[in-house]
Design a protein that fits this description.
The chain has helices at residues 14-17, 21-28, 54-66, 88-96, 111-122, 130-156, 166-181, 185-190, 216-220, 227-235, 241-248, 254-260, 267-277, 283-294, 300-307, 323-326, 338-362, and strands at 3-4, 32-36, 40-41, 72-76, 82-86, 101-106, 198-200, 205-207. By secondary structure, it is of the alpha/beta class. The strands form 2 sheets. Strands 1-2-6-4-5-3 form a 6-stranded mixed beta sheet. It has a two-stranded antiparallel sheet with strand order 7-8. Helix 6 crosses helix 10.
Length: 363
């Protein structure tokens, strides 16, 4: 059981989620508990990595000297355990310090509300990888749409939401979207309508009627990044993990990576070409690949031809062209393994030459 660090627990309602900051701060003091760390689970599909790096060491030293100044945030699960909403790095630091309990604020939130708060709290980090932004934006995008849409559905069926009448909550939620995120009242009213649940084949997410704007506007209104940049980040979630890793490493730019995300099963062929040519595609090359893919003309040979073009980020290489060399490779040898095959063959031939010279000298 969590050890109380304040007065009797009082969990906030959805109505309180949209109250003033002063009201939230006052109520929060009554919900701080010392919770055993082994009862706290990470947030499902948490998109932000927790690294044991220099920043983590600094956090450890801070907690060692002053304790956890800012409580973590958790919500109670049906099985009696707790789900961590914010504070994954603080939890890890406390674990490394051998601490048994974590100072937490307990909140009562829906999955969508918890997702929104989880992503917003982690966007305050000083360093965020592109992959982390990509999945965080997508999670928050889906959660924000579902939150208001679910309220609308309950209202239509005459049901309460969170145990309270929908009307006042929905009104406050829409006001929150308009005032905090800069959305138009028309947009806020459209969320949850039949048109807003139509399928968007380009993003895999519901859309709202033309002229009202897409749900990603809701993200851009509170972000320092443009709507178009947010769209690019969300699109990165369609990349295979290996290509997304190259984006995180700075080897592939965001814009060419977005084009590659549309290549479906051909992304594996692109990865092999990158490994073979020791370079990554430019934005212009990635656009050409996408065009060929849309025309059903993108083959491994076409990808290789595009990648073999000389680029500024390409390492010096020996190019083996034509049937004279291709027929020397085993037919089942992937392109990414050709370099190793050639190196092994040359080493074998070198050892053969050395043995030949030894026999000649012995005569």
């Amino acid at each position: 059981m969590p050890k109380e660090a304040g007065n009797e627990i009082k969990l906030p309602s959805l109505d309180e989620l949209f109250s003033s900051q002063e009201e939230r701060d006052d109520a929060r003091l009554k919900r701080i508990y010392e919770i055993p760390i082994n009862q706290i689970d990470p947030f499902p599909d948490h998109p932000f990595k927790v690294r044991d790096d220099e920043d983590m060491q600094n956090l450890i030293e801070s907690i060692r000297a002053q304790g956890v100044l800012t409580p973590c945030m958790v919500r109670k699960k049906k099985d009696g355990r707790y789900e961590l909403i914010s504070g994954h790095r603080r939890k890890r630091a406390c674990e490394l310090l051998g601490m048994d309990a974590l100072r937490c604020e307990i909140v009562e939130l829906s999955k969508e509300q918890a997702t929104i708060l989880m992503t917003e709290s982690n966007f305050q980090r000083s360093t965020i990888l592109p992959s982390e932004k990509a999945f965080a934006y997508k999670m928050r995008l889906d959660a924000m749409k579902l939150l208001v849409s679910r309220m609308v559905e309950n209202q239509k069926k005459g049901r309460n939401f969170g145990g309270e009448p929908v009307g006042p909550q929905l009104e406050k939620a829409r006001e929150h979207l308009v005032n905090s995120y800069g959305l138009s009242e028309q947009y806020a009213e459209a969320l949850g309508s039949a048109d807003s649940r139509k399928h968007d084949h380009t993003t895999g997410a519901p859309v709202v009627p033309r002229g009202v704007g897409r749900a990603r506007d809701l993200l851009a209104a509170q972000s320092t990044e443009s709507r178009e940049q947010i769209r690019r980040y969300v699109r990165l979630t369609e990349l295979i993990p290996e290509l997304l890793d190259l984006v995180d490493e700075g080897k592939i730019g965001i814009r060419p990576a977005v084009e590659l995300s549309y290549l479906g099963h051909r992304q594996r062929d692109v990865l092999e070409a990158i490994e073979m040519e020791q370079c990554t595609p430019t934005h212009e090359q990635a656009k050409r690949m996408r065009k060929l893919y849309d025309e059903q003309k993108l083959t491994p040979e076409a990808i290789e031809a595009i990648m073999m073009e000389q680029k500024g980020n390409q390492k010096e290489r020996i190019v083996l062209r034509g049937d004279r060399f291709s027929r020397l490779f085993p037919p089942d040898l992937p392109a990414s393994k050709r370099e190793d095959y050639v190196a092994a063959a040359m080493e074998f031939y070198g050892r053969h030459r050395e043995r030949q010279r030894t026999r000649d000298d012995a005569r």
